[in-house]
Amino acid sequence: MFRALADPTRRGMLAALALSERSVGELAAPHAMSFAAAAKHVKVLEQAGLLAREIRGRTHVCRLAPEALAEAEAFLAPYRRFWAGKLDALEAALVADVETNTTGDDT
Fold first, then answer.
1. 65: left (phi > 0), else alpha (psi -120 to 50), else beta?
2. pLDDT in tens, 44-60
3. Contact (Cβ atoms closer than 8 angstroms) between residue 64 and residue 14
4. Which of 26, 58, 91, 96 is least surrounded by Cβ atoms within 10 Å, i.e. has the fewest?
5. In angstroms, rounded to a whole number, what is the distance separating the alpha carbons of residues 18 and 59?
6. Whole-model pTM?
7. Residue 66 pLDDT more than 60?
């Protein structure tokens, strides 16, 4: 899943699908790529469980499959808390440093 999310084109496709279902051609258009190239990206997203594809006549229609994103969110949540704590500690240290340097003796 994270390999699929690493590519900015695929993330863009998922952002479009968050708004509404799209055909593979519609997903390709904003990225100025061929249908074949877009189909490869769609296949990677589909294999990762991030989208579902349905064939309607000759059109392949894709829709977001948010369940997989929820799984990624659950995996990343402990790391978010870890880094938020580290950033809070850094902010406190920087504020203390600024206060020390601005209230100190300027002689």
1. beta
2. 999 999 999 999 999 99
3. yes
4. 58
5. 19
6. 0.71
7. yes
* Integer Cα distance of 10 and 2 in angstroms: 11
Tokens, residue 40: 């490869």
Residue type, 39: A
Q: What six digits make up the tokens of 63?
A: 């829709």
Q: How confident is the model at residue 41 (pLDDT cuts 50, 70, 90)?
A: very high
Give me the count of residues in the chain: 107
Annotate the chain with DSSP letters as a single string: -HHHHHSHHHHHHHHHHHHS-EEHHHHHGGGT--HHHHHHHHHHHHHTTSEEEEEETTEEEEEE-HHHHHHHHHHHHHHHHHHHHHHHHHHHHHHHHHHHHHHS---
Alpha-carbon gap, residue 28 to 36, rounded angstroms: 9
